[in-house]
Amino acid sequence: MSSVGRVEPQRLDFSTPLPLRRGGVLPAYHQLVETYGTLNAAKSNAVLVCHALNASHHVAGHYDDPRSTGWWDNLIGPGKPLDTDRFFVIGVNNLGSCFGSTGPMHDNPATGKPWGGDFPTVTVQDWVDAQARVIDHFGIDRLAAVLGGSLGGMQALDWSLRRPERLAHCLAIATAPNLSAQNLAFNEVARRAIVSDPDFHGGHFYQHGVVPKAGLRVARMLGHITYLSDDVMDAKFGRERRRDLEAGVDEFQIESYLRHQGDKFAGYFDANSYLLIQHALDDFDPAAEFGGSLSAAFARAKAKFCVASFTTDWRFSPARSREIVQALLDNNLDVSYAEIDAPHGHDAFLMDDPRYHGLLRHRFAQIAREVGA
């Protein structure tokens, strides 16, 4: 197995405004895209990969610096579970992100100034609508599969619900049909940390030449705690202490680790993007349009499904994946489900667990046979 090597993102410009689910439209916009592998003559071997909160279009390979590795490089490449010798893989940076697609840092054409806090509300459905335009750009009528983990899994589910004719397989990993009240609460605390930062300025901090780093740090620290399992944190840190030479005090290693993660995140992620993406995560609830019935929502679906969860993932627990599976079974849809005993918590979907990768390797081999890849 090897990497796809050095890659170059593409910028796709769209002149047709995008109507938004929560009102208004996004005027002419652009999205960054990366592709790996070759689209076959029948254009039947395309797989769309949807990203989670702090990821991007850079799914595999690297840029000039070999350390700039794509966030799912362990899964995607020649000979890997999602084999780029057989599939044409597409990664799209969602609107509102801070990694190149049109977002709060870009200029609002109506004012000539950065959108900042005035960037319109976007939803999972809006992202999928924009992704569909990217797929149209490549002349692809039907995707072999849509794959995503966490928030990316919600996008994959939305593809299956609102564009059932345009995908053959839906792979939803470590995801949920909506957020629980506890998850909504965690997200609200993270948002309060950001908007309460004096440097936030209602989202218009660009014009003040500052960044609400303190709020971003706390938001990331809180989020990071929820991505890990208790067992992993205990095994990695326990109650071990280290000496903070600058402060001249002893501290628990977990304290130092969380501050490091918060500092790193605040150095590259945009506060407005964080708020926008979190709101999209909170908003997703396909059953809401059907009186709360998830089974009714999935009556529209036609794809074959692969759903996977991880036993120690308490943020997107296996019980939430089983809700999805039950709704699919209620509609007599083709679904396979794997509940993988892995210690890593929610982050397990990014790891190298051999059972998890074996599951996806088997599934994509099946898909390759179906599409002649």
List the helices and strands and how they pair.
Blueprint: E1 10-14, E2 18-19, E3 25-26, E4 29-36, E5 46-50, E6 76-77, E7 82-83, E8 88-92, H1 124-137, E9 143-149, H2 151-162, E10 167-173, H3 181-195, H4 213-227, H5 230-236, E11 241-244, E12 249-252, H6 253-266, H7 271-283, H8 294-297, E13 304-310, H9 318-330, E14 335-340, H10 354-371
Parallel strand pairs: 5-8, 5-9, 6-7, 9-10, 10-13, 13-14
Antiparallel strand pairs: 1-4, 2-3, 4-8, 11-12
Describe this structure in words.
- The chain is α/β, with parallel strands linked by helices.
- It has 2 domains: 256 residues, Rossmann fold, CATH 3.40.50; 98 residues, Orthogonal Bundle (Rna Polymerase Sigma Factor, Chain: A), CATH 1.10.1740.110.
- The chain has 10 helices and 14 strands.
- β9, α2 and β10 form a beta-alpha-beta unit.
- The longest helix has 18 residues.
- The chain is globular.
- The two termini are 18 Å apart.
Shape: globular
CATH architecture of the largest domain: 3-Layer(aba) Sandwich
- Placed side by side, the strands forming the largest sheet appear as 1-4-8-5-9-10-13-14
- Rg computed from alpha carbons, rounded to a whole number of angstroms: 20 Å
The H-level CATH homologous superfamily of the largest domain, spelled out, is: Alpha/Beta hydrolase fold, catalytic domain
Beta content comes to: 15-25%
Largest sheet: 8 strands, mixed
* Helix proportion: 25-40%
Number of domains: 2
Order of helices and strands: EEEEEEEEHEHEHHHEEHHHEHEH
Ends distance: 18 Å
Low-confidence stretches: none
CATH fold type of the largest domain: Rossmann fold
Quick check: average pLDDT?
94
Helical/strand content category: alpha/beta
Tally of contiguous helical segments: 10
Total number of strands: 14
Report the top-level CATH class of the largest domain.
Alpha Beta
